[in-house]
Amino acid sequence: MNTALLVIDMQRDFCAPGGYADQAGLDISLLRAPIPAIQQLLTAARARGQLVLHSREGHRADLADLSETKRLRAEQAGAPIAHPGPLGKLLVRGEYGHDLIDELQALPGEPVIDKPGYCAFAHTDLDLLLRNRGIQALIICGVTTEVCVSSTLRSAVDLGYACTLVSDACGSAYPALHEAALAMVAVEGGVFGRVCSSQALLTEWRAAA
Q1: From the candidates 148, 163, 170, 196, which is the catalytic residue?
Q2: Element (H, E) at 170
């Protein structure tokens, strides 16, 4: 089964001091926790020749793609979208904070999906890119487990992709919600796919080599 690795929203706005998450009062150390596991997955997937994709949440500079509901929610969280910060305007494409963190930059040729919402399939060409490459299965990781990761995972399952969620390669500022999101994937025999650790997945890959 043709498989791709999808890394969700490992951006400075979520994982660096001064970004959106930091401005909203979240503990970015928890959001940075999955970086080592994701680095290992990226190294192994690239060595195997697997397709690697990245997503970034953010909006057009003119905010024409920002819904009023999302705008108000961000304001209530204390981090208004497009508000100037140390990393530039929060969650705005082209700003320093919108880009991926230095540790997890995309390599040339790896698609980067810019999305205005939580799900990487909503209002993007992700599904088209995957189907054009014959991808049938996704390995998903990134932040945050209970929001963008879960939203993308659920849509992927509805679109017919077999999904694996890598538990320690996902992060959340809310440990209880992280665990709950993982648990919801595995119920009923894996209603949203399977959950495994990065080491278990890497062991599988080595065995298959």
Answers
A1: 148
A2: strand 162-171
Q: Give the active site residue among 9, 13, 99, 114.
A: 9
Cα 30 to Cα 63, 115, 117, distances in angstroms: 29, 23, 22
The answer to whether residue 1 scores a pLDDT higher than 80 is: no
115 is an active site residue = yes
Determine the average pLDDT of the residues in 146-171.
98
The CA distance from 52 to 96, in Å, is 22
CA distance 196 to 165: 6
Domains of the chain (ranges, CATH numbers): 3-208 (3.40.50.850)
**CA–CA separation, 10 vs 102, rounded Å?**
10
Q: Is 74 exposed, middle or buried (0-12, 13-18, 19+ CB in 10 A)?
A: buried
Tell me whether residue 119 is one of the annotated catalytic residues: no
What tokens were used for 16? 């660096």
Residue 166 tokens, joined: 């890598």
Residue positions counted in the chain: 209
Give pTM, 2 decimals: 0.97
pLDDT (tens digit, 9 = 90+) per residue, 59-97? 999 999 999 999 999 999 999 999 999 999 999 999 999
70 an active-site residue?
no
Closest among 112, 100, 19, 95 to 60, alpha carbons compared: 95
* Bridge partner residues of 3 (DSSP): 137
Which position among 99, 115, 119, 163 bears the catalytic label?
115
What mean pLDDT value characterizes the chain? 97
Looking at the predicted structure, is the pLDDT value of residue 209 above 90? no
